[in-house]
Amino acid sequence: MRRVRLGMVGGGQGAFIGAVHRIASRIDDRFELVAGALSSDAARAEASAKELGIARSYSDFREMAKAEAAREDGIEAVSIVTPNHMHAKPAIAFLEAGINVICDKPLAATQEQAQAIADAVKASKAKFVLTHNYTGYPLIRQAKAMVANGDLGELRLVQAEYAQDWLTEATETTGNKQAEWRTDPARAGAGAIGDIGTHAFNLALFVSGLRPEALAAELHSFAAGRQVDDNAHIWLRFNGGARGTLWASQVAVGCENGLRLRIYGTKGGIEWGQENPNVMTFTPFGEPKRIITRGGAGLGGGAGDWTRIPPGHPEGYLEGFANVYTDAADLILGQGDGTLLPGLEDGLDGMWFIDACQRSSADDGAWVAR
Amino acid sequence: MRRVRLGMVGGGQGAFIGAVHRIASRIDDRFELVAGALSSDAARAEASAKELGIARSYSDFREMAKAEAAREDGIEAVSIVTPNHMHAKPAIAFLEAGINVICDKPLAATQEQAQAIADAVKASKAKFVLTHNYTGYPLIRQAKAMVANGDLGELRLVQAEYAQDWLTEATETTGNKQAEWRTDPARAGAGAIGDIGTHAFNLALFVSGLRPEALAAELHSFAAGRQVDDNAHIWLRFNGGARGTLWASQVAVGCENGLRLRIYGTKGGIEWGQENPNVMTFTPFGEPKRIITRGGAGLGGGAGDWTRIPPGHPEGYLEGFANVYTDAADLILGQGDGTLLPGLEDGLDGMWFIDACQRSSADDGAWVAR
Amino acid sequence: MRRVRLGMVGGGQGAFIGAVHRIASRIDDRFELVAGALSSDAARAEASAKELGIARSYSDFREMAKAEAAREDGIEAVSIVTPNHMHAKPAIAFLEAGINVICDKPLAATQEQAQAIADAVKASKAKFVLTHNYTGYPLIRQAKAMVANGDLGELRLVQAEYAQDWLTEATETTGNKQAEWRTDPARAGAGAIGDIGTHAFNLALFVSGLRPEALAAELHSFAAGRQVDDNAHIWLRFNGGARGTLWASQVAVGCENGLRLRIYGTKGGIEWGQENPNVMTFTPFGEPKRIITRGGAGLGGGAGDWTRIPPGHPEGYLEGFANVYTDAADLILGQGDGTLLPGLEDGLDGMWFIDACQRSSADDGAWVAR
Amino acid sequence: MRRVRLGMVGGGQGAFIGAVHRIASRIDDRFELVAGALSSDAARAEASAKELGIARSYSDFREMAKAEAAREDGIEAVSIVTPNHMHAKPAIAFLEAGINVICDKPLAATQEQAQAIADAVKASKAKFVLTHNYTGYPLIRQAKAMVANGDLGELRLVQAEYAQDWLTEATETTGNKQAEWRTDPARAGAGAIGDIGTHAFNLALFVSGLRPEALAAELHSFAAGRQVDDNAHIWLRFNGGARGTLWASQVAVGCENGLRLRIYGTKGGIEWGQENPNVMTFTPFGEPKRIITRGGAGLGGGAGDWTRIPPGHPEGYLEGFANVYTDAADLILGQGDGTLLPGLEDGLDGMWFIDACQRSSADDGAWVAR
Lengths: 370, 370, 370, 370
Description:
The structure is a homotetramer.
Chain A lengths: L3 E6 L7 H11 L3 E7 L4 H11 L3 E2 L3 H10 L6 E4 L7 H9 L3 E4 L7 H13 L4 E3 L7 H11 L6 E9 L13 H6 L2 H4 L3 H17 L3 E9 L10 E8 L4 E7 L8 E8 L2 E6 L5 E6 L4 E5 L23 H16 L11 H19 L5 E2 L1
Parallel strand pairs in A: 1-2, 1-4, 2-3, 4-5, 5-6, 7-10
Antiparallel strand pairs in A: 7-11, 8-9, 8-15, 9-10, 11-12, 12-13, 13-14
Helix pairs in contact in A: 1-10, 4-5, 5-11, 6-9, 9-11
Protein name (chains A, B, C, D): Putative dehydrogenase
Pfam families (chains A, B, C, D): GFO_IDH_MocA, GFO_IDH_MocA_C3
InterPro entries (chains A, B, C, D): Gfo/Idh/MocA-like_OxRdtase_N, Gfo/Idh/MocA_oxidoreduct, GFO_IDH_MocA-like_dom, NAD(P)-bd_dom_sf
């Protein structure tokens, strides 16, 4: 099976998520990273590319899109791993060049940027994948299959949370580079709701298969001088009558990366937490709780399809991320339908989520319809 | 040390919480149950008393209050373990007779009943204890002490939840006696918010030491034909700027008695769950999480004071309940100040909570001030 | 239902296990503690009895046995809660007086004492109960029922452990009274193997229903100057070909009271730990693991019979202990057959266990047959 | 940084561990797989190589060693991922050709094969790495550092276990390929003790820094007709007086890949389990237990060095395996001293372990000295 030729925008020295994308693309050996505009600083881009052994380095993503589209052996897909406000321009440039785009989330820093991406996706024959990587966890896909199969009956409650503590103090003022851009309204567009809330929201929709009808939100900025939300309490109303809550926090001391999903229906309930993602519980009403393990016994299809090693050999965040990349490779090579891949619609849902949270919070928690 | 002479109203054959109160009163051998009006049905009252070996049986609580007050060896305290709508009348009768009252929660089924109790408490020299029994767990008292001591810094978030699943189906229509009265608006006054929400709310206030300033709520009735709420999503605003959420549910499949409290401040966070109550985690910001155990190492006072057996020998629900009874015995005998005992004010807070939830939910989740 | 009249030998001021027995006897209100020889020191015995409100105080257990046997309202049972070397004499005195005996474990400090008790039990019409209290945990009884029912198939492995850390340092030399007698060969007869190893051994036999055929052991004394074993590694051979291991330790830093049992057969496996005793896992081979909870869903008889409160309301060590007392009350009153009650045979098994461990260890771990 | 040119022997279509090695070598992008003798069947070797995009395919490892050694761009290292009895011949061939060897464990199927490898390693200037991959887990390395630092004081106990259930039934007779060779004495050399026991033994030595002085073992073969051990109970004596136990099982129903290590010293204890490898507990004696997380707060050096993503983003088995590969790349490129890399000595320890277990078990559990 041949490897997909991949490029990257962003992800130069000192970046975080770019390295994650590169590992994810390598794990199943489905991509070959051959070109990059790793930094807008030409020297840094060049040094980064050299360090990573990337053949072709560009300092400008527009030039890269144009040059790569013109090559016979040009890239077939590009990963965009820049801060949020820098997603739209490169995404549009590559889409216009007919090159498939794998873009980090959230979709953009503003609704305008998001709309521009949407327009470009619609106008292009290239594919657009948004790396809501948590959808790649095998047990999340298992949960989705179980819900779809009716194992939980009619859904009533979707409880999502994503709690961290790394912004407990105002580290954006004391030299933490990640904190700097992620708490800057101009570059991030939002705080916790964008950075992690969109993940939780996406996961809730992905697994439940429900659509949001309205939300209410109260956003907080606890750390002194913080310019974006660092905590959010959100209520959700779904189609069909299900209800939910979502809590996103970056000031919950003791929480590292506590993304957690609990869904309850008339017939059963499931609970899953990202920090030990190889385990999920499922309770059929009136029966003992079962511990479902990745690749373990009794899975009726589902998790077994997206795992590399036997049960009890834990897979983690990078393997879940890799599942999204591998599905993207299949999609790009015409070998899969990409049913499970997050894309533009998920991105637009996330942008609505951010906007609705901000509007609701500004209106004392009033409901905002989808 | 002599035993307090105790009476009981309610708790006859077939009842649930009465038996719990009796065990709780016995564990530390501080009470002697000598009189009861265990049922309003005279024959059932008599039979129940005989079965339990209670010396003096009454079929009418008013008669009991009068007779016991007149005896030299009459009861010094009475436990009221009737359904919610039957708290006020006996409570008032015993308070008026100068007999101390230990009353099950919530305070009453209506605000009017609650006010009448409040008036009677103020007019009486007798004490009034409300069995918010979860305050008796040693680690809950430890947590309260740690918050008061500043171990968590300035509080930011109080996340409480109480999830059960026993009302997933409409068992009130199929012969479940507990379900019948607990889902009857006339007898219970409210559903999940009264039965379990008040516990979670009380615990949040007890541990945090905060006062509520406002709440917003959305109540749901998922089971077909249910006349009260069986699920509630609540937001809380506390004095000093702390915020919180509270989720109460009786339809969360797979949850048995999931009362859980998480509190986060500027310096630390704690997490505790009732189902394994001998363990709590405490994370000082920037340090590894610690597992604090009941009676275990490193408690700077606190939990060690309310436990009977060494760490690793689990105490449970009944011992926590017993701590409330034992504190009540101390209070009645003039041996303690009852600082940790829940009482009238807690009951009124709970009644406000129920009322505010209902008003907010009826107003589409608008904030209701305390 | 009338209460059994109970006496107590030992358990005066400063003792530990006596207070546990008293609470256990009270929880279900099946006993009335009316007489005691709480200490061999007359003044201390008197003061202790007065503090506890015990009507009749004796300073000599022989006198007590005689006097109580002569009274019409004399005690029907006596709890013996003295150190191990002081079990035999009072047990024999009361058995000879025809009074039922509830004795703490292990049976005795020496084989000779144990044999003397055995002779007395056989010669007496009174009952003899040994408080291997962990057999009273509902889920332990559930596990026993599941094994007996064949849910695990043919048993292969029984892995038991009991790890503590309270004797990590030589606290017997620095004033810890419990440590003093429990590490004194004369008073305790053995160290970890007697104090906790016998519990684990008893539990393994109780749940598995197997009989030991041989054991091999290596005993260690890690703390400086310790005169008894504080750690033991043991192998077990059972009838029918099952094999097992047992680890008992009082120097495993971080372990509070880690009694744990794991049993595996051809068809299933179960795992239970005492520190969170309301939960057990059961895995039918080739299916997902189930979490069995005390009183919870899907128990086919078993745990539901020995519990007072609904699932999710944790019961603990004291309630498990109380189940043994309550069964003893039934036995004494002729209302039950005592099938689940540990007694003389369990005590003799434990004494064989202690002796065999010591002999095997002295012989470099050679196998010792039952 | 340039990639190390890697070859592979074994790991063709249908194999398991070969794919794991390939992923592990890719994760950090330190290797380039350019040659292989993936199967002794020429057509299968060719097809496998093609499928994997490996440039140079050989059907004979001797030919491969010779040809690659002769090329300027020949491989610098070879991964040997054949069944145990096929480790020695290719390892020796490549060592003799001066090519570094990365060999799967255990070292060999027989002591003779092991000795031959040892001789070849000593005679060669090439490096030899044995993939005891569990040593690559960040928290295992953290634990090793903590022990070395004296955080646990003087070690007393090392309790290791490795429990699985996949050989509960005799699946080697019903078409399970992995079961076939792993339970074949000729190809595997031993059963559970070789396949998983050596891992647990290696980990115990790696973390504790202790040397074994003697062991005693009882091996069992529970499944009908099984020709090797599927369960083993082992005692260990270490230098300096520490003692330990090791339990390896492939018939413990409900255990997936339960490798677990617990170490206790005079000052502290640690506990770690492979199935959730991002978490370890550490208890300083007399203080609350701490939860140490991979990359989390309060690590004084250690785990932070071998991790790619922030705490709370779980890494798993493949990342641990990748750490061994990455260290091997450093070693091969002369960029590291390989201090943490398992090699020949670890392999010989493992072979002694297997042999000693078999001899002890044949002698009714007698001690066998190192």
